[in-house]
Design brief:
mainly beta; four-stranded mixed beta sheet
């Protein structure tokens, strides 16, 4: 038996430099005479650095400043490898990490305190059935704990007023936000994934064949609420700017999710694949493969609600590649094409967990800040008009057409020049559609500048929705595309007389019309 063990610990502390929009010196005093609102606003103003804006040539409120960040991490790994009496091999691998970040906060509350604990346990059994055939069986257990919580500094901002669960404050574009509006904090996620994957490889003449399948069972628990602590928005309306409305204690809107959104989900992700590496002749090699994937619709382990979409079982991904060697000319040409599928992630379909009757998604125009302390005590009310979140019933796995082509040329001095192209076209990326939005009031007195009108404002938005049984309806659909193209150049030198080097240059362009980027699937 052989084995190895590695352990490491990191402690990193340093300042992060950044830019915010901070109140001007004349905007540090409340404009209201209400004693409670004055105390509230003064406490919130302490979230901003006690520094005046210092880059007025960029914008009047532009402040460049620094904030302290600390990251502590511990990690270890274990590997054991044992050869059994019959020649079979049994291997065990374990990896563990624990990282905590006390984040930088140029404005107190702008980033969450983050803890992540990924763990992996893997057992692999390998048996040679013949000199040309090998069977391998792997069993994996992957666990992830991820906590994104508001910092103690943020929670203490309003402790003097007896408010221990502080909402977020969206200031629009005039000054930087206080808190993290719309980011779903606090976030608690526990992932437990169980995977079994047999694989058979064999060599038959000029063919190197491989086949296998993967059975993966997902146990995921997650708490996600975009506005679970409440989110106040201050706009430029009511005859005042957003900053003036903040100093007056006069918010435009309160968005709030009421109810427990912690859910436990179960589903399966299974796949099977076949691969052939065929050596046509000494100069030409072909690679041909086919993969089939199935993703079952998840269900809530407590059966508190039902998902609207079905199992996605029509996902076939072919792969093709080739490599051709010119021989004496020292040129190698490579190319490939394949279809690769993404996932229906937890962050995508968990939006349905915030719907009635378990949860009320509320929006109030011109709310009263005197009621801020009551937010944590609110409970869902059956029949209350609420917003809805949904994943389209026909939602399917996004997929990409991926292709590449490259030419390699041997140069004198043991060097290799490569010129290549890589591209992809991604289909069915997720897009969020905001539906049942408030329609404009057509009356002439409502078609005037926002600062002076009394209608077509946040105060009367709910009355202007087409379907007054609901507030905003946010639906995730397969409605976007992604494009990626890259020119790749590299020059490398094999080690000779102790010298080796490699230089690379990529010129790439990526575009997509999805919610945020290729990796994002609905605030994921």
């Amino acid at each position: 038996m052989s084995g190895s063990f590695a352990w490491g610990q990191t402690k990193e502390t340093g300042f992060v430099n950044g830019n915010i929009q901070a109140p001007l010196p004349g905007e540090r005093t409340p404009l209201t005479n209400d004693p409670f609102l004055r105390s509230l606003i003064l406490a919130l103003l302490k979230a901003y650095p006690n520094e005046p804006p210092n880059l007025p040539h960029i914008s009047p409120r532009h402040l460049n400043t620094n904030a302290l960040r600390r990251i502590d991490g511990t990690a270890f790994s274990i590997h054991l490898d044992n050869t059994l009496p019959n020649g079979d091999r049994l291997a065990y691998d374990q990896q563990y990490a624990n990282t905590h970040e006390d984040p930088f906060e140029l404005v107190i509350g702008q980033n969450p305190a983050t803890t992540t604990k990924p763990q992996t346990y893997r057992v692999t059994y390998t048996r040679s059935l013949s000199p040309a055939t090998v069977l391998q069986l792997s069993a994996n257990y992957d666990r992830l704990l991820a906590l994104l919580l508001t910092t103690d500094r943020y929670q203490n901002l309003l402790s003097g007023l007896g408010i221990t669960d502080i909402p977020d404050f969206d200031m629009g574009d005039e000054i930087s936000n206080i808190g993290m509006p719309g980011q779903g904090i606090p976030r608690r996620r526990y992932e437990n994934h169980y995977t079994l994957s047999p694989q058979l490889t064999t060599t038959r003449g000029r063919h190197s064949l491989a086949a296998g399948f993967v059975i993966k069972h997902l146990w995921d628990s997650d708490q996600r609420s975009s506005n679970g602590r409440g989110s106040y928005t201050f706009n430029s309306e009511f005859g005042a700017t957003a900053v003036e409305n903040f100093l007056l204690g006069r918010p435009s809107r309160l968005a709030l999710s009421v109810g427990n959104q912690y859910r436990g989900y179960r589903n399966w992700e299974d796949s099977a694949w076949l691969y052939d590496r065929f050596r046509v002749n000494p100069r030409l090699t072909l690679n041909i493969g086919l993969r089939y994937e199935v993703t079952t619709a998840p269900y809530d382990v407590s059966h508190r609600f039902e998902f609207r979409h079905d199992t996605d079982a029509n996902n076939f991904g072919p792969d093709f590649g080739f490599a051709w060697n010119s021989g004496a000319a020292g040129i190698v040409v490579r190319g490939g094409y394949g279809i690769h599928y993404g996932q229906l992630t937890l962050a995508t379909w968990n939006r349905q967990a915030g719907n009635p009757p378990l949860v009320n998604s509320l929006s109030a125009g011109a709310p009263d800040l005197h009621e801020i302390a009551d937010i944590p005590t609110l409970q869902p009310v059956p029949g209350r008009v609420s917003g809805l979140g949904s994943l389209d019933a026909e939602a399917a796995l996004p997929y990409s057409h991926v292709y590449n082509f490259g030419i390699e040329k041997e140069l004198p001095g043991a060097m290799m020049l490569r010129v290549g192209y890589e591209g992809s076209r991604t289909i069915k990326l997720f897009t969020g559609l905001s539906q049942n939005r408030a329609l404009p009031d057509p009356r002439p007195e409502c078609n005037v500048p926002l600062a002076i009108r009394a209608c077509n404002t946040s105060a009367d938005a709910e009355a202007r929705r087409p379907n007054k049984s609901y507030r905003r309806i946010y639906n995730i659909v397969n409605g976007s595309l992604g494009y990626y193209d890259a020119l790749q150049l590299s020059l490398s030198k094999r080690r000779t007389r102790g010298l080796a080097f490699e230089a690379r240059y990529n010129f790439a362009k990526a575009m997509d019309t999805a919610i945020a980027d290729f990796g994002d699937t609905g605030n994921g």
